Amino acid sequence: MVALDNVEHLKVLNLSSNMLQRIDSSNLQASRYLEILDLSRNGITTIQPGTFRELKKLKYLDISLNSLRTVEDDALEGLDSLQTLIIKDNNILLLPGSALGRLPFLSTLNLDFNRVAALSSEILGSVQSEYLQVLTLSRNVIRELPAGTFQVFKNLHKLDLSGNSLAVVNSEIFTGLQASLIDLSLSQNKITNLGSAPLGLPQLRKMDLSGNNIADIPRNVFSDLGNLIFLNMSGNIHFDPVPPYLLKPLLNLQSLDLSSCGIKSISGDLFTGLGQIRELYLHHNNLLELTENTFQDLFNITFIDLSYNHLTSIRPQTFVNAFKGEFFNTGTGLEYLDISNNQLTYLFPSSFRIHPRMKIIKASYNKFSYFPAELISSLQYLEYIDLSGNSLKTIEELDFARLPRLRELYLSHNELDAISEMAFHNSTQLQVIDLSGNKLDRIGERTFEGIVRLEFVDLSDNRLSELSEGMFDTNKVEILENINLANNKFEMAPLETLQKQHNFITTLNLSNNKIKLLPADDQILTNIKKLDLSYNPLSMQALKGLFNEPKTVRELNLAGTGISQIDSLETPFITKLNISNNNISEIPEDVFQRTTLMEELDLSHNNLQKLDSLSPVWSRLTMLKYLDLSNNSFEIISAGNFENLE
User: Fold this and answer.
1) Is the dihedral of CA 6, 8, 11, 13 positive or negative?
2) How far is CA 384 from its chain centroid?
3) InterPro entries, from UniProt (predicted)?
4) E strands of 430-538, at which residues?
5) How far apart are CA 497 and CA 198, in angstroms?
6) Of 24, 558, 559, 610, which one has the greatest count of Cβ atoms within 10 A?
């Protein structure tokens, strides 16, 4: 690399993502001050002895994503200051102990995504162990680990063995790591057995055992893990029932993941004593019910995910099919609760009253037909509610009112046929309201009154044929930015109702309605940035107005609107145009004369027959990145058809 001869004080050199196949010492002789060298994503197959001999100051070396099979004993000679070595994603079969033994200050070694099959204290014995803190060997093919494999590493903090083929793991493997190991990952192996003795890792803070085949854990295995903060047992699909003694020693545990473990029931005292727990992940199990003491005295809990179970009730004896407030006897810390995708039919009015700091409630895809206002009326910190995919039929007066921090409300895919005009009263910070997929044929004029800024309103897939005049006047809604009215029954575009918001509306979706006519020179159509009128039976007059009258639209969808001919587009800022599924047989040369910013054009499913006639058109579209001409009637493609699409 002669080019480097004159930059002898270079400290950082990135040669990644080239086509280098070899590198030797002569290439780097003039770069003796290098501290960081990245050779990743090349085709290097071997490292010659002495390649890095002159790089006495190098601290970081990345040779990942190459084609190395071995690292010769002398390959890393001279790297006396190296701290981080990344050799992941090569084809290395054996950990290069002798080569690593020449790195006296190595602290991080990454050998992920290789083909290392064997590890032992003998293989690792040559490695300079005094400073090594991070060792990652994930996604290799290691099947077993002898006793004392890592005993030379007295200062190892993190060990990652995830994605191997380990079947048995026990305390003897970790001999020597008692005083140092903080983070242990054994996920995505084939572990069935953790032995019967304590793991012997009292300093451990994080342990990941997810994605294994663990069905049971003997009583003493976790007995010395009193400092553990994060435990992930998810994806052990036969880990049921969870032994009631399992978590008792973990007094400092803050995050526990038992998702996707096939759990059918939880003993009432499983979480007893976990006073520091903040996050509980129990989703994707087979829970049918929860006993009344399950979450008792978890004073610091802020997050519970119970989604994707089969909960039909939470049983405080007398309440069948009830989600009763006393069940969560946890004080006032709960902020996030996910009970979506269960079979709950009713929430007792006091369910959330003892959780005044609740911010997020996800209860979608259950069987609720009624949602009492008392459930959330006292939750002054509530920001997000998702009740989509239930069987709610009406939204009554004040159901979602007086919630000063509520930002997002999702009520899609219920059976709503009516909404009280006072339903959102004084919830002035609402920004997203999703009412799509219901049976609404009318929205009252005052429904959104008092809301400061509506970022997105989704009223698609309902039965609306008109919008109440004045419902979006600025004295009711200060700002409306995006609205979806697709798949309704509009015969006239409700532009008059939206008129007062013409300075703010960015996106308007009116697709799949019955609209034929559009008013000329309408301010909404003139100022809108993203407009979808696809699959409406638009008249020729309406189409002419869209094409010929000046507009600032950036994205325009007119697919399936009956277009048979196109005139010159007066949309100089447009970047995306969809006119597919029409009857277009030719495109005049000057159609795109003013659309020089166009990046995406969809002309598919039309009657275009001659590509030759389109060649002059392409010369206008110098910014075009995506072009769809599928499902037309072209018979011949010649070399020059696309020559103007460079």
Assistant:
1) positive
2) 18
3) Leu-rich_rpt (IPR001611), Leu-rich_rpt_typical-subtyp (IPR003591), LRR_dom_sf (IPR032675)
4) 432-434, 453-454, 456-458, 479-480, 482-484, 507-509, 530-532
5) 70
6) 558
The answer to whether residue 310 sits within a structural domain is: no
> What average pLDDT does the segment 21-42 reach?
88
Query: Taking Cα atoms as reference points, which of 551, 556, 553 lies closest to residue 570?
Result: 551
Give the per-residue pLDDT at 293. Answer: 76
Number of residues assigned to the chain:
646
- End residue of a domain, out of 71, 92, 115: 115
- Tokens read off for 33: 């001050």
Residue written as tokens 């493609």?
637
Strands (E), 251-320: 255-257, 279-281, 289-291, 303-305, 313-315
Phi and psi, residue 416, nearest 5°: -65, 125
**Whole-angstrom distance, CA of residue 638 vs CA of residue 254:** 66
Report pLDDT for 26. Answer: 77
Residue 258 lies in a domain: no
Domain count, the chain: 2
552 phi and psi, to 5 degrees? -105, 15
List of residues 6+ apart from 26 with CB closer than 8 A:
none
Going by DSSP bridges, is the β-strand pair 555-557/507-509 parallel, antiparallel, or unpaired?
Answer: unpaired
Q: What is the CATH number of the domain that holds 110?
A: 3.80.10.10
95 closest CA partner among 110, 108, 81: 110
Domain-embedded: residue 400: no
Q: Calculate the alpha carbon distances from 619 to 348, 534, 571 in Å.
A: 66, 27, 17
Question: Using CA atoms, how far apart are residues 100 and 109, in angstroms rounded to an integer?
Answer: 9
Extended strands (E) in 132-238: 134-136, 158-160, 183-185, 206-208, 230-232
By residue range, what is the domain housing residue 609? Answer: 529-645
The full DSSP string for 45-83 is ----TTTTTT-TT--EEE--SS--S---TTTTTT-TT--
Greatest CA separation for the chain: 84
Most confident of 310-319, 389-398, 612-621: 389-398
> Mean pLDDT over residues 88-114, rounded?
95
Rg of the chain on CA atoms, in Å: 33
Which conformational region is residue 40 in: left (phi greater than 0), alpha (psi within -120 to 50 degrees), or beta?
beta
Q: Which of 178, 175, 82 is nearest to 132 (CA)?
A: 82
Last residue of a domain, one of 100, 115, 130: 115
pLDDT at 322 over 70: no
- Is the pLDDT confidence value at 76 over 70? yes
Place of tokens 């005295």: 297
Which residues, other chains included, contact 53 with Cβ-Cβ below 8 Å and sequence gap of 6+? 25, 77, 78
Mean pLDDT, all residues of the chain: 92
**Which DSSP category does 618 fall into?**
H
